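Pipeline run #58 for the internal structure catalog. This entry was flagged by the ingest filter as a single-chain record with no existing model, so it goes straight to prediction. Upstream metadata was stripped on purpose; only the residue string is passed forward. Reviewer on rotation: M.T. Logging verbosity set to normal.
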Amino acid sequence: MQNDLHLKRLSKPNPLYLFMLCALSAQAQENRDTVLRTVDVIAPREAASLGLSTPTQSGSRTGLSAKELPASLESIDSQTIAERGDTQIIDAITRTTGLSVRPSPGNGGLSFSSRGFAGVQSVAVAEDGVRIQTASGTINYPSSTWGYERFEVVRGPASVVLGSGTVGATINAIRKQPTRESRQEIMLGIGTDGYKRAGVGASGALGPVASYRVDAYGFHNEGWHDLGESRGGKLMSTFRIQPNSDLKFDLIADYSVDRPDRYYGIPWRGANQHIDKSLKKESYNASDAVIRYEELRLRAKADWRVNDWLSINNELYYLESKRTWKNIESYALNAAANTVTRSDYLYIRHDLDQTGNRLEAIVKAANHRAVFGWETARVDFKHTNNSPYGGTSVVSASNPSHGYWSSPDAILPKWKTTSTFNAFYMEDAWKFHDRWQLLAGIRRDFSKISRDNLLSPGGADDYGNQSINGTAWRVGLTHFLTRDTNLYAQYSAGHDPVTDLITANLMNVRFRLTKGRQVEAGIKQTLPNGLGEWTAAVFRIEKKDIITRDPANSALSIQGGKQHSQGVELAAAISPAKNWRFEGNYTLLQARFDELTEAGGVPRDGNRPQLVPRQTANLWGHYRLADWQGSLGLRYVGKRFISNANTTEIPAYTVADASLAWQYDRGTTFRLIARNLTNKVYAASSYNSQFILGEPRRFDLVAELKF
């Protein structure tokens, strides 16, 4: 009704409107060759978008939009995630360009491959730009997509923004924010294999200057294989005080508990080490196996706009993570006897506490937007285990009797570390011409780590205040070719640790950070008349000082290895006709070791790194008819190798997903979601000598209510 009244008012012959239109028309004609300032327009859902106009803090602290940034950044919003039925972050992220997953219970499930570099030491995960330090190769939070507005993926080195361990990519989860307008949303879902989930979100005003946002989520799944039960839940809360438009305070408190699937895959079969489909629903873990992650996160943020040219923000946080594993993790198949020998009876516990602060100043002056920042953190970590993880058993390969976990080795706190991290950084986005922008940044990281053996204090593996420092920098140039088309090029330098810093032993803590160098160029374009957006990028990354074997003594590990990757990435979102929308991406990658020698003095020069595919692709098509929308998606991951030896392959796979949505009214939508339509049996990753299979066909029915 309000829009109709507004249109009626505009239709009246008002002389002032006519004068303004004439003036604007004349000015546009005079400046027809001048690039206009970008105006962000929120498009209707039917319009296709890659989120190029969205300001980002993931690729740069200066607040540039994805289109202005001289780097590859992709954004996937909560509505797109809901359309595709992606309840877990790994599902949503692997729809983005060039990202493939390499999950296992041992790494927390959030291990990815990007641009030829794989694992938690090269692909970082953060929430609102805050990272918990990686311990013993594990990242497990955040896991579910509920409560987040969008996820941003920066491909290539992002060490200037988030520090070490980001040469491959950085994934940043952006939370939903408090609003003074009252908003509520409810999600209820049921599915095959006993899958149930529910989510609630609410925001609104609390008095004249305060507002809030609360999100709660829980799920329970009986699982598609034996011993496949999983469950979990979380509470996310933000309390905001904003006395005026220049000052804002946020208090954030989150708590989550996850008991993910206790699945370590099935052993491969035969001389060619292939997938035995007859074992696809088997699990060889113990009946009383445990995987449990508990997270507590507290944050306090202050944002103060001092004047027109200076803003200051500060964020203080405390993160606590408690993780427990009690599992049988290694399986070897005896094909002749049709039995499986189980070993590695592991009990591991992580107790991690991280306290940190980030202070930042933003200066806007003379076409510059500069950022100066300081980050500091202290991490206390204790590792408990039953090393050397003794225990063996033999079970039938088909329908095994799982038994119970038992090990002859005592469960004891073994060691602890105390780590301090400091980083100083600055960035400047300088628009020195209407058509040119220069982005430059530098960061210096300082780390000090101490380790104490709890069984034998002062033992050979203890050390104190070992320093590991690194410098990252980048220079990027953006050319605004037209109002809708940007060209860019950048050179960036970052670094990865050879192992997780806070859990490094005496041998590894002596290694310096590896060095990554990237050259990238690309194009980003918004198509006219709401047709869509597309991007293309070419890149080359070289990484040196990776761990290799000493040519003079293959029993010794030294730094000096090298690897590189180069490739092409394409992404597009288009609406070619009324009611039609398509989203897709494709990556062609070459990744190679230039210099690498492994155990026994075996060279791996020319081989591809493990679990890195040469090609990945995603495609989604949507058709809307009145209140109905049908969607079909395809996901392709090329073949990968289980090890750097490149002898055992994980076959390529293509998985088809679909959804059918009915918008009952403005605030109510029902979705029928189908995953893995063809019920394809495929390996998503590998662990030890096992294939970790992907989920078979599943159907979900979801109700979404917003009011």
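catalog note: Confidence is low (pLDDT under 50) at residues 1-45.
catalog note: The longest strand covers residues 339-365.
status: ready for reviewer M.T.
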